[in-house]
Structures are given as C-alpha cells and as structure tokens.
Amino acid sequence: MKFKDTGFRTLYRQFTVFPLSGESREDMAAYPQIEGANCLLAYGFIDREAGLTLEVLAAGYELENKYVFFDPPRETPCIIRAENVEDQEFSLLDDRNKALRTRYAGILGFLREFEVGEEIEKTREMRFLDDSRHPCFPDDVQVYLMRQGLKPEPCWARISGLAENHIKGILLNEPEQDFGCHQGEEIAVNLDETEDKKVICYANMNPVRLLKPEDLEDGSMLLGAIRAFHAEGTKEAFFEILETLRDSYVWVPCNAVLSEADQKAFADMMDKAGGDPAALVGMEMKNQEKIRLVPDILQNGENFFFPAFITQEDLGQYGQYFSKVRKHFLEVIALARNNEKQLSGIVINAFTEPWVLDRELFDVVENLKSRLVQEK
Fold first, then answer.
1. Burial of residue 231, with CB atoms counted within 10 A of its CB: 0-12 exposed, 13-18 middle, 19 or more buried
2. I need a surface site. Which of 23, 114, 277, 282 has the fewest CB within 10 A?
3. Which positions ≥6 away from 170 have C-beta within 8 Å?
C-alpha cells in the first residue's frame, strides 16, 4: 500500500516496513548491519510543527515475507517525513504481542515529547474531518472564513482543542480579506455538509451583536430569529435562534396543584355551597400551604414536548386554562431536562409559528456565552 492512497492513520502509531532506498541507506549509516539490510522498520508519530513523521527504529532484511530486524543505533536516530514517502510501498506489522514495542522501548520513549492532550487526540479520530485535513499535517484543517459582504476564503487552521459546539483552531496564514482575525489567533471552527455529503469546515467571522435586556423584553427579536430560520433555513439563522434563546425570558403554562389540606378546604366550601360552583362567587379562600405550579406537557404522537411561549398572547385560547409563569430560558431547560417524562425537546410557540429545540441541543444552549452587555 501507499501512504497517499490510505491516509495518516495507516502510519500513525503503527509499525511499518519500508524498502531501503539509496538515500535512506546513507541517512542510516550508523545503524547496525545496514550494509546487508534491504528494508527499514519505522513507527509513525505526529510532530505538530513538522507533520506526520516516521521514527526509524532499525534496519532489517526481508526474506520470503519474513522479517529480521537489528538493534537501533546508539546515536541520534533517523526520522523521515511522511510527505517524502507518499509514493513508496510499505507494509504494516502486527504487534499485538507488543514484542516490537518492548524491544524498541528505549527509542520509542523519545516520542513522549510529541504527546498531545485528550481533546486533540479525540479530533484525530474524527473521520468526518478527513476531507478537510492536510494529508501530511493531520492536525491542520482547511477552514472557509465567512463574513457578510466578503467572499468565502479558505485558510489553514491548526486544531487546538474542543468546545461544546465547535472545534478550536489557530489560524496559520493571514487572510487576504479583512475578516477581523489574523494569523496566530484562535478561531471557532464549525462543520457543514455539502449537497454531495462532504463535510467542510467554516468559521463565522461576523461580529457578535451585543444586546441589552430591553432588546429582548418584548420577544420580537426571538420571534424574528425564528421567522428568519423558517424563511432561510441556514445554519447562521439556526444559531441566531440558539444565541437569542440563551438570554431570553419565555412564558410557561402551568397547572396549579393544591396541597391535600387546601383541597379538603375547597371541598368543604363546595359542600357549604351545595355543590353549586356559582355559589362560590365572591367567597374567599386562603391557601394553607404553597400552591405548586406544574408545567403542562404537550404530546405529538409518541413524543412529549415542554411548551414555552414568547408572549402571553401567543398562548391563545390554550392559555385560558393555565397559570402562566415567566421564566428565563436556562431555567426552562432545567425544568424540561428534569421532567418525569422523557421529553423530546422544547417547543416554542406551539400553536402559531412553532420551532423545536431538540433535547440533544440543551447542553449547546447552556454553554453558549451570553450576548448581553455586561454592566460595569
């Protein structure tokens, strides 16, 4: 097989055998028994600055599909950059018994300085990023910078970590257009899928619009974001809803639940009124214990949803049967998550212009940064 036809995982943390070329033989002059060798044993690792690299462990020879490898040199070992062997045939060696790892443990110990954190290791397993990766620099991905009024511009970014809803990356080259970011700065890398199912990386470089509490007070901004998404269906419009919801207050319909003592007191009043509700008009009843307000739950087929409304008017006739409580949306998420039913999500304005926040996205909204202007 050839590296250029397979991808970095065929070399990364794998023991491989390459034919010994004349140039490699010169570089490996200090290796024991190099004169009679016809192959070399290598181990792949990632140098974030220099790319996918092969640590040459030993010279060896192959005879009838069997290999014999010699000891490593006492001097500084030889390394080969993957880009220099893209067209060479190589073979993978099975080391499930860890014989090779044990034998060459001393030289492999040198690779500890190239270890990375768990987040970066996790991104190396994300195969959906492979279409955007540099073939020889697996931590580098091509990212399309996007900003209103400018053309999408591809740049390279080196993955630096993970956030709740995006990948973090360091911009490796200076953009030709003014996106408001520069080489060396960290950007948020998002993912999108093209019509042919290819995943691409992009960064939304539109400046974040800071909000004041009064901007969200009447709910028109949230309603406008939902309408824009229904009209456009873009990821930008989708995330505008999420970011607006993060700081919004909504109305929750609730059922008032009396305590047992208050239920008994009410029943006694009904008895005195002869069971006629009309006779209760004008009578007063003071509750002995706190009244519990239990949010109503809507059902659609087999799915259950927590209803929330932008304004009281949005509840329409449905709202006449409930007490209405105004809650911050982060409180609504907590209520929905802890509901005794396994809710599918939160539905906004269920009876007018409905929009559903799926349960899987609760964490995303909770981890978004507030766009409200911070008071000094």
1. exposed
2. 282
3. 157, 158, 160, 184, 185, 186, 187
In the prediction, which pLDDT does 285 show?
47
Could you tell me if 160 and 186 are in contact, meaning their C-beta atoms sit under 8 angstroms apart?
yes
pLDDT confidence band for 45 (50 / 70 / 90): very high
CA distance 187 to 179: 11
Residue 53's DSSP bridge partners are 45, 81
- pTM value > 0.85: no
CA distances for 18 relative to 3, 57, 106, 107, angstroms: 11, 12, 21, 18
Q: What percent of the chain has pLDDT over 70?
A: 90
Instruction: State the virtual CA torsion across 284, 286, 287, 291 in degrees, nearest 10.
Output: 70
> Rounded distance, CA 244 to CA 82, Å?
46
Nearest to 307 by CA among 265, 369, 251: 251
Amino acid at 13: R
Long-range CB contact pairs, 158-162, < 8 A, 24+: 158/48, 159/120, 159/123, 159/189, 160/120, 160/186, 161/117, 161/119, 161/120, 162/119, 162/122, 162/123
CB 41 within 8 A of CB 50: no
Taking the C-alpha atoms of residue 320 and residue 107, their distance in angstroms, rounded to an integer, is 76
Token couple for 126: 């994300």
Query: pLDDT (tens digit, 9 = 90+) per residue, 2-14?
Result: 888 999 999 999 9
